[in-house]
Amino acid sequence: MIFKSRLPAAPYIIWVAVFILVPLFLVFFFAFTDTGGNFTVVNISDVAKFGPVFIRSVLLGLIATAVCLILAYPFAFAMSRMRRGLQKIVMMLIILPMWMNYLLRTYAWMTLLETNGLINRFAGFFGLGPFQMLNTDGAIVLGMVYNYLPFMILPLYTVMIRIDESLIEAAQDLGASFTGVIIKIIAPLSKPGVTSGITMVFVPSVSTFIISRMLGGGANFLIGDLIEQQFLGNAYNPHLGSAISLILMVFILLSMALLNRFDDDETEGMLV
Amino acid sequence: MNVQKLLKKIFSSGYTGFIFLFLYAPIFILIIFSFNASKSKSVWAGFTLEWYGRLFQNEFIISAFRNTIILALVSSVLAAILGTAAAIGIYSLKKRPKAVMMNLTYLPILNPEIITGVSFMLLFAFIKLSPGFLTLLIAHISFSTPYVILNLMPKLRQLDRYQYEAALDLGCNPFQAFRKVIFPEIFPGILSGFLMAFTYSIDDFVISYFVTGPEMQTLPIAIYSMIRKQISPEINALSAIMFTVVLVMLILVNIKDIRETKKREIKY
Question: pLDDT (tens digit, 9 = 90+) per residue, A110-124?
């Protein structure tokens, strides 16, 4: 231990207590009280009414996560086997769109998917369409994949770069087939990246309200929209909103705990 | 078929090209139409810089931009100070409390942004703090301090404790020893934590959306209301400018990086 003093942590501990723990406690408190401040479970039981919205959000989030994994996996592997210099450039190109505000990135797709947008105009050239693409579930999934694909590529890349090339060669020398190499070597060694990639894509996807609002139109509600409506929208009811938030939070924590059981390694995977 | 062959196939099939096309085509189309003479987003009607001119005269955007920069600077400096002190303190905690503090540090990162935003909204309503710059500042410090701490922890672990002890033996008081020995060693970690805090602050929409008041607009919030109210090519112009700024910044950082690697290669 270099420093004997724990004192410098004191301001942060106070900060965490006041600005992280108290607010979360308030969510909990509001979820279990009515407007008069009396204990009630009505808010929690009311959430059941929104079951279909929950199922839809989770389903769309899962589809987006699966698409990201399928797209990112071969890409990350190919990237990890490039020349060092090239890897740096590719890495930069993956990070670059992430630095542009995601409202603008989502807006870009809004203009592309419109009925008289560029894609429909292009299709019209060949006598096809116009297709209704904006305001569909597909558009929402597309927006999620587009915004969060780098979150899947980067953790996968960071674990795959540590897979030794000679390990793959040894497996091949010992007679492993192509699928054998993938199942026995690459898949197990990239598992921590897969789990953190899934978390980093699924959590923002399932809780978004911007992507659904911009690409799904008003009618295609997700949990995020539901929460936003209770706090800033017409349906103002922070008690119900807190109950929905609480259930969403518990659901996400449980699914992350479940996911981490598949990932027994003690690798620092969460952050790239 | 072996892995090398498959890789070749991945490249020749243009798979990487496809991913980059997917990531960049929408952005480039957005940028191209920022120069479009008509308001249409799909029909080209000639070249103009009109939208850029309008953007620079748009009071709403300019004040939002100013607010964003001030907020990002103040919040990330304060987060860097709070986070550095916290990392040093947490590092010297015993195993159990250390683990508790690290988990609490991960909490705002793992929690969905909307829930963090909502919980702040409840807190500020509860303590009757009216939404504005101060609420934004508190929220931004809270979500960016963890990044400073997480950037610093590995640096603290790599520290050579004997250097610090040697400085003490040679007559430094603990504060001097910290300033002369520890601080220069961990400074790169503080800097990268600060930069991360700064970029997250500039980029944040969801949390700001829940804690800001009507008079206090940040750039992402201004973009959101622009997108909702009127669709104007000014948004495209703004995107083009942001993209260029980020691109230039990334290139600069990487040039410095490459130069440093070269220097190191020469040294050894």
Answer: 889 988 888 888 888
